[in-house]
């Protein structure tokens, strides 16, 4: 399949250009905050009827979210994916024009932000993690679609009929559209699974359970897609021709998710309640 003719620049006014990638971040936060507001306002969904913070505070937290994602994502990329280069060129650390962002770093930054924000508002920080887990899939979906539009982070060569020839590929061969795989698995499918958990099985009433479900679902999806996604060129495969940094970083997320699910499912009352 030829790559669809989509300009990565969504809006251009004179010298000012706004890319789809930037809009994905912006709308991911705004739509996530709007959905988070609905979840927080529905008190019957939460443990003891008490969400981690009042619904009106979600807009304050949206600002924290933007900073946490950008700072965490950049720091994660520097540390996990290209540390030798940035040690030699420290001035490039703040240069995000090269697109160097790590999802795992952004996740850690977001987790820290919601824990601190929830505690400052007198709420249960595990419920805060549940909130983030319930809304994060929206941003993941939009972000992976933006990766596809940018023709970046594509997959390995393939003969499947839906393989795509990306304009940025120097070999110009059909490749797995791994960005769309991740959008479908980590974004859409995981959102639906968590929606069923929160609104049919009332999983938010067990603090930590939704966060655990998200962690397991994301980690398994990422590990699976990494088998057909090309690794970052500066790292390559860490072992053989299959183990990638994305898989390695997803393993502790998977383990953490299993621990959270086990903890939440076996506790009648959560001792972490402030």
From TrEMBL:
**Secretion signal span:** none
Write the Enzyme Commission number(s) for this entry.
2.5.1.145
- Membrane topology qualifier: Multi-pass membrane protein
Please give the biological process terms from Gene Ontology that the record holds: lipoprotein biosynthetic process
Which key words are in the record? Cell membrane, Membrane, Transferase, Transmembrane, Transmembrane helix
Per the record, the major location class is membrane
Transmembrane intervals? 20-40, 61-81, 101-119, 131-149, 183-202, 209-230, 242-265
Sorted alphabetically, the Gene Ontology cellular component annotations on this record are: plasma membrane
* Compartmental location: Cell membrane
Q: Name one GO molecular function term.
A: phosphatidylglycerol-prolipoprotein diacylglyceryl transferase activity
Q: Which Pfam family, an example, fits this chain?
A: LGT
Concerning PROSITE patterns, the annotation shows:
LGT
Residues the record lists as binding a 1,2-diacyl-sn-glycero-3-phospho-(1'-sn-glycerol):
144
Q: In which pathway does it act?
A: Protein modification; lipoprotein biosynthesis (diacylglyceryl transfer)
The family database entries (NCBIfam families) matched by this protein are listed as:
lgt
Regarding protein family, the annotation reads:
Belongs to the Lgt family.
Functionally, this protein is described as follows:
Catalyzes the transfer of the diacylglyceryl group from phosphatidylglycerol to the sulfhydryl group of the N-terminal cysteine of a prolipoprotein, the first step in the formation of mature lipoproteins.
Q: What is this protein called?
A: Phosphatidylglycerol--prolipoprotein diacylglyceryl transferase
* Species this protein is from: Devosia ureilytica
Q: Which gene is the coding source of this polypeptide chain?
A: lgt
